[in-house]
User: What shape does this take?
Amino acid sequence: MAKPRVSRHDRQRIIDRAGALCEYCRSPLLFSTAPFSIEHIEPQARGGRTTLANLALSCQGCNGHKSTRTTALDPVAGQSAPLYHPRRDRWRDHFAWNADFSEIVGLTPTGRATVDALHLNREGVVNLRRALHLIDCHPPAEPER
Ligand SMILES: [Zn+2]
Assistant: This one.
């Protein structure tokens, strides 16, 4: 059976809802060298549906590292934790920026597991954050919710 596709209209709604930022690493779509993905938070392989409540805007790096995972190891506690869920969780409850805004710090088991599993501090995004900070385009504003 063919997988349901996201309509152009819904894709734009998801981009707008995310403020045109990757919902995990908060990289801006505007400065990306690769197209962003509409990602299934609960993977289709595990029954996740193609509905707005289960879709998130994700850069290629985060999407590739997340793959079909919904949990990962919290490197501090050494226990499995649920990955950050952009529809259920608030970013600022689980993450913060370090002093120079170049790296994301996990504040909770979910935050730490997500930073680690999705490689939220990849060299490329760290370099982008530094460059954008120099021109006052980083960090991005806090999401409304
Ligand atoms: Zn990302």
The longest strand covers residues 37-40.
